[in-house]
Amino acid sequence: MTVIGLDGGARTAREADHLLHRLAERLPLPESTHGCTHPLRDPEPRVVLSLTLPDDAAARPVFDRLRDGAAGEDVAAAWGERRAGARAAGAAAGAAAAAAGTGRAVLFPGWRLLTGSLTLGEVFARTAITRAEALGGTVPPASAVLDTRGHVRPELRDGTLLLRLMPARGGRYVPFEIPDPHPCCGARA
Q1: What's 27's DSSP letter?
Q2: Which of 59, 61, 78, 120 could bridge 92 with an S-S bond, Cβ 3.0-4.6 Å?
């Protein structure tokens, strides 16, 4: 596996998601690519990204396109010792987090197939997600129905994807991460 770290200056997970989806449209990413977000607190809070590709042969054209501005001039990239862009240190931090096997997955094999309602067995068969866990550590059966709400963001843990769930009406489940979070009390002046 080969990791390219990215820093597009995203301040929120939502901004980072949009950037990863833009990259999926513009770059020659193999289907096996994992695109993850990673919170970075130093020197300023932001969300950096990583693209985990199968090997150097897959990473080379992706890095070259990033270096040449395919994702926009504001996106820095780091791959091994190679750096491109003003925020290359943040990009390197994203690569390091992915290499450690952690992150919030946005792009992963099968992510485009997660729409509507599916059983967890279907999720496991169609995607790279290998486990699901509900609040309190409960493991729902493969027959449990997931209402994706069009927003599935599993956690990358030790190199595998874990989908955290919440119970919903009718014995169904929904992803723990809600599609459109908005600030609560902390946003008030």
Answers
A1: S
A2: 78
